[in-house]
Every structure is written in structure tokens, then in C-alpha cells.
Specification:
Elements (H helix, E strand, L loop, with lengths): L2 E5 L8 H14 L4 E5 L5 H12 L5 E4 L10 H4 L5 E5 L5 H10 L2 E6 L3 H19 L7 E6 L7 H10 L15 H8 L4 H4 L4 H25 L1
Parallel strand pairs: 1-4, 1-5, 2-3, 2-4, 5-6
Helix pairs in contact: 1-9
Length: about 220
């Protein structure tokens, strides 16, 4: 049975696609069968996959889906051939985000270290909590990911403290604001294949390890 991760958020500019693509590549490198669902009408993940195919780089299977992705004949059927599914959710499109949360086991909520992004996170957390409380997806887990962090600024250093009062765990793994992320996407790769051993690759590897550990604990708790 596959496990589904929704990279979600109501606000644009928080790096959802960058996180989803890089995490998918890292999980693929670890030997998992990975499906990346591009649910964003902009289609950035699909464009990245096209570049990867043109240049012969390994990439997860990428498909486009919309508001009906939760229907039994869509993602629940397609996901059976994969170990892990990542959904790249669009901003400001509550219908698609809700559909993703209806099939997700884990919602990852990236947040950049800016007051606007921290404030905007509240609406995304509200949708997650609604899905948990209304029996739509009561076992849904969620976690906040600090993304595009600049450790040189006071705000970048203090963002974790600002996020920890939101009622959901903040992952230990953080992604910094590094040019390697943009360069990797442009080349049709993830940072773990574009610059193995680099700081960005280490960040994503740590994120992949923490996400897998969280999913494993969740599955063990479900069995128990």
C-alpha cells in the first residue's frame, strides 16, 4: 500500500514545488517507487519532468491531476503501483488542497521565514485541522517545514520559535535559501543528484529521512 504526502499551503512563494520535486528525487534515490502528482495548474513539476527526460536524468513518474484527484478512479487507483506519492498542491485553490488532504497520510506545510508567510500559514493549518476533525481524514498527520531560510538574518534564526506555537510539529530538517535549488530544477534534477554532498543535498537527505521516519511511526501506531 502506498503512502501519500501532500505538500500543501494556501500561499504562493513558499517553495512547495521545489520541496516536492527535491523530496521526490531523494526518495527515488533511496529505492522507493515514487509518483509525483502535479496538482498545480501552472504545471511547474511537469515542466521539470520534461527537462529531466530530455537530459536523461532519473526522475519519478509525474502526472497531472486536479480537484477530482481524491476520487476512487483517480489517485487511489493509480497510486497502487507506487510506494510513495507526493502531491504538489497549488496556492489559493482550496478545492484542490482539500482533495489532496482527503487522500494524504502526511501534509507537509512549507513556510518561509517572513511574517507574511508565518501569518498565512494559519489558513493552511485550519484546512488540515478541518480534515482531521471532520472524519474526512482523521489519521492525517501534519508537519511544518522551514523553507528558504537565511540563517544570516535575525528573522531566519528565529522563525522556528515563531512557528512552534501553531499546534503542529516543526520538522528538524530545514531547507536554506540556496542557489543550488534553482540550478538543480533548471537542469531537470534534484539537488541530491545535481550536487551530491553539497549543503542543499544534505538538507534534502535529512528531510527525506525525517519524513520516512514520521511515516513509519504513523504506520506502526496504526497497526498497534
Amino acid at each position: 500500500m502506498s503512502l501519500t504526502i501532500a505538500v500543501a499551503g494556501q500561499k504562493g512563494g513558499t517553495g512547495k514545488t521545489t520541496l516536492a520535486v527535491n523530496l521526490a528525487v531523494a526518495l527515488l534515490e533511496l529505492g522507493h517507487r515514487v509518483l509525483l502528482v502535479d496538482a498545480d495548474p501552472q504545471g511547474s513539476a511537469r515542466t521539470w519532468a520534461d527537462v529531466a527526460a530530455e537530459r536523461g536524468h532519473p526522475a519519478p513518474t509525474v502526472v497531472a491531476m486536479g480537484p477530482g484527484l481524491h476520487r476512487p478512479d483517480q489517485l487511489p487507483t493509480l497510486s497502487s503501483g507506487f510506494d510513495l506519492v507526493l502531491i504538489d498542491s497549488p496556492p489559493s485553490h482550496g478545492e484542490i488542497l482539500r482533495a489532496g488532504l482527503m487522500v494524504a497520510d502526511l501534509a507537509l506545510l512549507p513556510c518561509s521565514p517572513s511574517p507574511v508567510d508565518v501569518w498565512a500559514l494559519a489558513s493552511s493549518l485550519e484546512l488540515v485541522e478541518q480534515a482531521q476533525a471532520q472524519a474526512i481524514r482523521p489519521a492525517l498527520a501534519a508537519a511544518i517545514v522551514v523553507n528558504r531560510k537565511d540563517a544570516r538574518t535575525a528573522l531566519g534564526r528565529s522563525v522556528r520559535e515563531a512557528l512552534e506555537g501553531n499546534g503542529q510539529p516543526v520538522l528538524c530538517a530545514e531547507l536554506a535559501n540556496r542557489v543550488a535549488y534553482a540550478e538543480a530544477l533548471l537542469s531537470g534534477q534534484g539537488v541530491t543528484t545535481y550536487q551530491p554532498g553539497g549543503l542543499a543535498a544534505i538538507e534534502v537527505a535529512n528531510l527525506a529521512e525525517e519524513v520516512l521516519s514520521m511515516l513509519t511511526r504513523k504506520e506502526q501506531a496504526h497497526v498497534a
